[in-house]
């Protein structure tokens, strides 16, 4: 059954590829709308980058909304050191012509869920969870309308990428993450434990580039740019392609496996702020609230990505 989804995003080269994969897969995914959130770069840029990506895919019909411009209760932390000043460094892409929608992204999420039948909308957060948490707080009645939240964020065995203990999306807005993980909607988590096993090796990058299309070249230039940070830090052989794990799951869930466990968020200690405390070994009786992924068929993931991007 086709997934009807809202993508909540802070593009970000990996967000961009996740959006392209969704737009290349209309048989499995109907993108109802895209809401931008402050994260990798400030909101003005994430809202602009989301439109640049839609136009790259030839989809200037997609409705893009600007959401929250800062976390619920903390100052915004951005990641230009990873994604570049524009957040989409690497490819040379034209400024968007398509307009931003007037409605605030949080209002769009609330209205779309309120108008939907229960359990029919999948939320796909690819950045900090500020917009989702704001919507759930303002309109708790919408939680039951959510079929599933499939998000990129957190880490257990991989621990942190922005601090020693926290992954960036959760770290930027830990309060929001706590609200979302406690809300009661079914959650599938794509943590660093999975995304760090999905590296854009030179061969995989060459496969994108050899598509010889505008999209293939842009994607290859995106991953060429944003791999610097991880290669330097982890000595890895390429960038971990985080966010497309979310949309790949909607198309081929069998590429992933994990455990249904309790996951709670550190929101008080500055030392471990934003840590996803995942009870992977079942040592507590805390409620199991998340399907926390641990394994990925990495080559199957890249084969799917390359095959689908060729369609655009
Ligand atoms: O930690 C990786 C996550 O942070 C990805 O979603 C990346 O786009 C950034 O938002
Ligand atoms: Ca992101």
Notes on the structure:
The protein contains twelve helices and twelve strands. The longest helix has 21 residues, at 214-234. Helix 5 packs across helix 7 and helix 9 (202-209) packs antiparallel against helix 10 (214-234). With 312 residues, it is an alpha/beta fold. It is 37% helix and 18% strand. Bound molecules: alpha-D-ribofuranose and calcium ion. Residues 10, 12, 14-15, 39-40, 126-127, 152, 161, 167-169, 242-243 line the site of alpha-D-ribofuranose.
What is the second-level CATH architecture?
Alpha-Beta Complex
If you compute it from the alpha carbons, what radius of gyration comes out, rounded to the nearest whole angstrom? 18 Å
Class in CATH? Alpha Beta
**Secondary structure: number of strands:** 12
Following the backbone from N to C, one meets helices and strands in this order, namely EHEHEHHEHEHHEHEHHEHEEEEH
Largest sheet: spatial strand order: 3-2-1-4-5-6-12-9
What is the end-to-end distance?
22 Å
* Tally of individual domains: 1
Percentage of residues assigned to helices: 25-40%
Helix count from the secondary structure assignment: 12
Overall pLDDT confidence? 97
Shape: globular
**Which parts are unreliable, with pLDDT below 50 for 5 consecutive residues or more?**
none
CATH topology: Inosine-uridine Nucleoside N-ribohydrolase, Chain A
Distinct bound molecules: alpha-D-ribofuranose, calcium ion
CATH level 4 superfamily: Ribonucleoside hydrolase-like
Strand-pairing-aware structural class: alpha/beta
Q: What percentage of amino acids are in beta strands?
A: 15-25%
Q: How would you sum up the major sheet?
A: 8 strands, mixed
